[in-house]
Each structure stands twice: as structure tokens, then as C-alpha cells.
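Team,

Forwarding the record for the chain on the shared tracking sheet. I've put the sequence and predicted structure together so nobody has to dig through attachments.
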Amino acid sequence: MRATFLFLSLASLLLSLANLPAAETKSPAAPLSYPDMDRDGQELAAKLRDVRPEANSSFSGVLQITSRDDTVRFVPIASDISVTPTNWVVTYRSMPTNGAAAETLTITHAAGQPSRYVQVIGAGSPAAAPLHATFAGSDFWLIDLGLEFFHWPKQRRLGHEMSNSRSCHVLESIDPKATDAGYARVKSWVDIEYNGIIRAEAYDRAGKRVKEFKVDSFRKVDGRYQLESMKIRSRATGQETELKFDLQKK
């Protein structure tokens, strides 16, 4: 399936980059101009957050969480995207492991509307959760899974760079109401051809880089390249989480 919708969530990243060519394939590199960085940034962020998936989909995988002392634990996860006439709902589920309770996170997206986040931990009741809450003890916060930073009021397109041998827009998202608990700025490299995030960096209010995200590897399945893994690293905790997707031939 050729994914024509954008990276709206972690789940849709798998689909938006599903047919990405091999690394040696050259993407278009025509000169780009940015006469109005703020206007262009707002337009790109709106496109990234408001284009809906075309169909229901699902994936499964595992979170490989490596602590600062190199202790590794594995958390199986599954995710579903459900599309309705008025919105699309992304659900993430982690399995109970090593004494940690199962978690379910549901994010409801609607074009032009704020996203809604509901989290259930173990046998608890559904509840709203802060965007800097972690998912399943990993380095992925709710803000990462829902790409909430594309909803921030200030968006600037900084230019055009290569990343992972791909031609990318560079988008800077700024939260003027940032607190010490969350991000103040996120810099994203967005693949120009496939509209998927190749790489991202998150910064705190002091300008210190606190997290790094990158697409890590692809594998050829049934004649096409599919995303096999991606990583997010927290500089604050020294922990790294790799999300490995289950890629099965049809």
C-alpha cells in the first residue's frame, strides 16, 4: 500500500515511510526558497497534523529499553489506527512485563481540533495524562506519540537539509508556554517526498538538547522497503528506547 497520508503519530510513521526507496536512491534536490519562515512553517505544520489516514491499519512490535547502566528490558506493544468520518483514533497497548502493568493510550485526532489523550494503567480507570508522561516506562512521552508539538502556536521552516541521504524540510516548533517538565522547542527533519519525520531533536527552556529521535533501519519485505526500527534517546536519563516493528511477508 502506498501511504499518502502524513506522519500523524508513531503508528502512521510506519505507513508514511513504508515505500521509501533504498538509501542509495537520490531524492529530488531542487533549490528551495523560504521567503517567509513563519508562514511556511505554519503551513507545513498544519499539513502534518491535519491530513487524515486513508484507512484503518495496525502494527505490532517491541520496545527495547536500555538504561544508563546497559540493563535491557523488552516490552511488547501493539497499535491500531481507526478512521471515522469525523476523526481518527490511534491506540497503543503495552503488555505487562517484569512486574510492570499493561498500559493503553488512546489519542483522538480531528482536523483543526486539539488532540485528546486518554491513558489507562493496569486496572485503573481511563484518565487524561500530562503530555510529558512516559509510555510503558520508555523514552517515548505522550507528546512524542501524538506529535503534539505540531499544534504549538509558533512554527518556522528553517530551510532545506539532507538527512539519512534524504532531502528534508527543517521545521522548528516552539512552545511559548513551556515549563521545566516538558519541551520548549522541537526541530524536525521532514522528508520532502514522503512527508515523514526522518529525525527530530527536542530542547528544554534553557536551550539544552534533551532528546533525539531518528529512523534507524529499513528492510525489504515483499519487494518494498519498510521501516524496521527507530530510536529515541534521552540525554537527561541516559536511557535509549528502540522500537522494533514486526515485519512479516504476506
